[in-house]
Amino acid sequence: MSSLPARIVRRLREKLFPKRIAGILATPPVTACDDGLVLFSMIGTRVLLPYLVAAKSLHAQLDAGRFVILDDGTLTGSDKALLAHHCDNPEIIPIASVDTGACPRGGTWERLLTILDLRRDNYVIQIDSDTVTTGAVPEVAQSVAANRSFTIRGDADAQILPVAEIARRHQGHPTEHVQAALEGRMGELVVPSLADPHYVRGCSGFTGFAKEPAGRALAVEFSQGAEALLGRAKWSEWGSEQVTSNFVVANAEDALLLPYDRYMNFWDEGIPTDVRFIHFIGTYRFHRGAYVSACRKVIAQLKR
User: Fold this and answer.
1) In this predicted structure, what is the pLDDT of residue 304?
2) Cα separation, 69 vs 66, whole angstroms
3) How far apart are CA 75 and CA 241, in angstroms?
């Protein structure tokens, strides 16, 4: 396979992937806990098996929480039956039922706003279907117990910084992507409820939102400020939801940035020996067979 062009190798690995992780269907079902912790994901039929790996591997380490799923509109009746069996009858919310209000629609905005609505009464962990929990995650468990928000870092050097410093660091960078476009102008951002707003380049693929009665209020305020700077069309582009998630976490009290050597995004640069959680970014998801290897490892653990 190594002599084939890289794009063909990727397509072959992607096509074979569901069969290679089908063993997740032979793992014991989860017993959910109505304990104030929600493990939340937005999924569709295409990612059903990877989602089960992501959800069951995290729950096995936390031994806490119940599942809530945002259906992207493609889940079938048989998909929902499998989810009911494996995830102890999770709550499934139709995406069309989510009111985004003044915020954009699409681009996973429905996901973020549903999470922020749920956090009025729960601690909510957002977990992407392309993630695998490979070991103990004490920092996550401690954050839940302390009602402390967290995020996986976008890269190893990510820090929570004042928005003016974010703007200074990103001025002059390419600004075509909505994230870069806003980061370069963060110093101009007006968020009336915050005297000293902060920001972090995190990753919404794995983020914990502390229980907070205000729900989505800060996200809506931030979105309106960003739209005033960039315009509705630009702010509606893919990626604006992640920028908002980053902002909400950065302005939470005592927010935690998870240590990157144990909670990482896979950029095809090797995996540390003590890694506990891996987010397999789309661009590199099927490189080196790392994703399927991690999935099969935790499937074997779950079977035991």
Assistant:
1) 87
2) 10
3) 23
Write down the pLDDT at residue 3.
57
The tally of domains found in the chain comes to 1
This prediction has a pTM of: 0.94
Strand locations in 72-122, DSSP E?
91-94
Give the three-state DSSP class for 10.
Answer: helix
For residue 148, being part of any structural domain is answered with: yes
Q: Give CA torsion, residues 260, 266, 272, 274, to 10 deg.
A: 70
**Among candidate residues 20, 56, 22, 19, the one with its CA nearest the CA of residue 41:** 56
In this prediction, residue 178 carries a pLDDT of: 95
Report the pLDDT value the prediction gives residue 35, as an integer from 0 to 100.
Answer: 97
Residue 184 domain flag: no
β-bridge mates for residue 43, sequence order: 71
In angstroms, the CA 14 to CA 286 distance is: 7
**Domain for residue 70, yes or no?**
yes
Task: List average pLDDT for each run of 10 residues in the chain, which is 304 residues long.
Answer: 65 85 98 97 97 98 98 98 98 98 96 98 98 98 98 94 94 82 93 96 96 97 97 96 97 97 90 93 79 96 94
CATH number at residue 93: 3.90.550
Beta bridge partner(s), residue 42? 70
Token code pair at residue 65: 């929480």
- Rounded to whole angstroms, the Cα distance separating 2 from 20 reads 19
CB atoms within 10 A of CB 102: 9
Quickly tell me which residue has 């973020």 as its tokens. Answer: 112
First-to-last alpha carbon distance for the chain, in angstroms, is 32
- Res 174: pLDDT: 67
CB 284 within 8 A of CB 13: no
Domain with 44, as residue range(s), is 6-155+201-224+259-303
- Rg of the chain (C-alpha set): 19
Residue 283 lies in a domain: yes
Nearest Cα neighbor of 120 from 43, 219, 259 is 219
